[in-house]
Amino acid sequence: QVQLVESGGGLVQAGGSLRLSCTASASIFSINAMYWYRQVPGKQRELVATISSGGRTNYADSVKGRFTISGDNARKIVYLQMSSLKPEDTAVYYCATPGTLVRGDWGQGTQVTVSS
């Protein structure tokens, strides 16, 4: 199974930008879809963005127009470009494959903190 490592989080002021990276241990080309989720303590994990193997993307309404998911299969990386960040975007962000959702073997995630 593909191992995933998230990075790129940090502390940013409201209105700022961050780019998260999800590095995979194997080619992501054959994976049907890749996901970015986020979770705030005490709340359920929330689906933020999806990219299919064909490059189609979908976003949660709360991030539409501000976040962009993309994939670089040659480098085995999936990105989440986040702009116009809001304090409510503060969360731990995780990437996932369909297998992750089935097995529940989430990575450590990367913390994003947006200050007002």
Structure explained in plain terms:
It is a single chain. This protein has 116 residues and is mainly beta. 5% of the residues lie in helices and 48% in strands. It has one helix and ten strands; from the N terminus they run E-E-E-E-E-E-E-E-E-H-E. Strands 2-10-9-4-5-6 form a six-stranded mixed sheet. A four-stranded antiparallel sheet has the order 1-3-8-7, with no helix packed on it. A hairpin with a 6-residue loop joins strand 4 (33-39) and strand 5 (46-52). The longest helix has 6 residues, at 98-103. The radius of gyration is 13 Å and the shape is globular. The N and C termini lie far apart (39 Å).
Question: What's the topology here?
Answer:
Layout: E1 4-7, E2 10-13, E3 18-24, E4 33-39, E5 46-52, E6 57-59, E7 67-72, E8 77-82, E9 91-96, H1 98-103, E10 110-115
Parallel strand pairs: 2-10
Antiparallel strand pairs: 1-3, 3-8, 4-5, 4-9, 5-6, 7-8, 9-10
Order of helices and strands: EEEEEEEEEHE
Main β-sheet, in a few words?
A: 6 strands, mixed
State the end-to-end CA separation: 39 Å
| Order of strands in the sheet with most strands | 2-10-9-4-5-6
Strand tally: 10
Q: Note poorly predicted spans.
A: none
* Integer average pLDDT: 93
Radius of gyration: 13 Å
Strand-residue proportion: over 45%
What structural class results from the helix and strand content? Answer: mainly beta
Number of helical segments with 4 or more residues: 1
